[in-house]
Amino acid sequence: MGAVTSTMAAKFAFFPPSPPSYELEEEEVEEEGGAKKLRMAAGVGVHNGNREYVDVLKLETKRGNHVVAVYFKNPAASLTVLYSHGNAADLGQMYDLFCELSLHLHVNLMGYDYSGYGKSTGKPTEQNTYVDIEAAYRCLEEKYGVKEEDVILYGQSVGSGPTLDLATRLPKLRAVVLHSPIASGLRNIDKIPFVTCPVLVIHGTDDEVVSWSHGKQLWERCKEKYEPLWVKGGNHCDLELYPQYIKHLKKFISAIEKSSRLRNVSGSNVDQTEDPRKSIDFREAGRSSIDQRETPRLSADKKEKPRLSTDCREKSRSSTDRRERSRKSVDRPERESNGSDQHEKARNSIDRFGDMIRSVGLCNIDCFKPKASAI
After folding, report:
1. How far apart, in Å, are the Cα atoms of 125 and each of 9, 63, 122, 184, 369?
2. Which of 193, 291, 297, 345 is deepest in the core (most CB within 10 A)?
3. What gap in Å lies between CA 197 and CA 159, rounded to an integer?
């Protein structure tokens, strides 16, 4: 295995966007006595609305590089996602996606640029990514007071390397998400058995850059498996466009939050990794009716993204009709009306997420150079 992974790693290359998609500026903050604060200059995908909830930072790594990070604060959040992005992207391109994920998943979210990416200094190398993510995680602990057990590590494609490397060294970590991950090129296949928290794997079945087999191999070797999301027809760069992407992430976050609450109530030690799996399984059983509605759609979603939202609305109407009949039979109009409103808001929220992702245009995010062969 070692010789194979070394060969794959030797062929692997980093492709930071050139030039960077953003610039950094300093501005004075009146409420902080004129102190200087970094901001991202408007550029590709960068919008500076609600800046009071966004921090732009420069973090020094153990190797002396300075990496740029962006932290999105969500007042309703109990969990924090540390997102390691894909190979051919930088923070300017990921900015709006990070903002939307923070809002829709109700989490704080930190993203960072690897050494040599965006406005981060140094050279992009595998070893540098490991100290880059350490600097970001250290910032979450020291600046924002985030606890290890409240952190979810999210690794997209090449980002699966630093994500799994750090995950093996955090025994109290809440969860890991691997998005189109690489199994062999970054030695991830050797590290995944040492991750003790729940792991969600997301991969497209038609991935032409990193074969779907990579995601399946990693999922099979997980200690704490969570129901994977195999996006039928999904390629390497477009999984965010499929409605089930955000729905499955929401389901995962909800299960993770519930497992945390159950442990707090029972007083169990957070190191007991058996508990998260049991509470997640319990969550799955409780959501079986939802899964039954979604399973047929997963098998038919290959190239029908526009129809998916329509199907969602049709199913929502039938579900609402059933609730209406139930409401008449028990004569509780006010309570059922409130529940319907909440369902409508959730549906509209997912539709808006899909519309935003289409407008951002993720076609260049995480793609290797043209004519690159699949790994």
Report:
1. 11, 12, 9, 16, 17
2. 297
3. 18
> Residue 84 phi/psi, 5° resolution?
-105, 110
Domain residue ranges in the chain: 23-262
pLDDT tens, residue order, the chain (375 aa) = 333 333 444 456 789 999 999 999 987 665 555 567 888 885 545 555 566 789 999 999 999 999 999 999 999 999 999 999 999 899 999 999 999 999 999 999 999 999 999 999 999 999 999 999 999 999 999 999 999 999 999 999 999 999 999 999 999 999 999 999 999 878 999 999 999 999 999 999 999 889 989 999 999 999 999 999 999 999 998 899 999 999 999 999 999 998 765 554 444 443 333 343 333 333 333 333 334 333 433 333 444 443 333 344 444 444 444 444 444 433 433 333 344 444 444 445 555 555 655 544 454 444 444 444 456
The pair phi, psi for residue 316, each rounded to 5°, is -65, -40
CA angle at 82 for the pair 10 and 364, rounded to the nearest 5°:
55
Q: In which element (H, E) is residue 67 found?
A: strand 66-72
User: Can you list the pairs that 344-352 forms with residues at least 24 positions away whose Cβ atoms lie under 8 Å?
Assistant: 344/316, 347/312, 347/313, 347/316, 349/104, 350/104, 350/243, 350/246, 350/247, 350/312, 351/309, 351/312
- The bridge status of strand 66-72 relative to strand 108-112 is antiparallel
d(CA 133, CA 113): 9
Burial of 345 (0-12, 13-18, 19+ CB in 10 A): exposed
CB 154 within 8 A of CB 177: yes
| Side chain identity at residue 258, one-letter code | K
pTM reported for the whole predicted model: 0.72
Which residues are known catalytic residues? 157, 207, 236
Sign of the torsion formed by the C-alpha atoms of 108, 256, 263 and 137: negative
Q: Which residue has the tokens 């494609």?
A: 157
State both tokens at 134.
């350490």
Measured distance CA(312)–CA(266) in Å, rounded: 37
For domain 23-262, the CATH class is: alpha beta
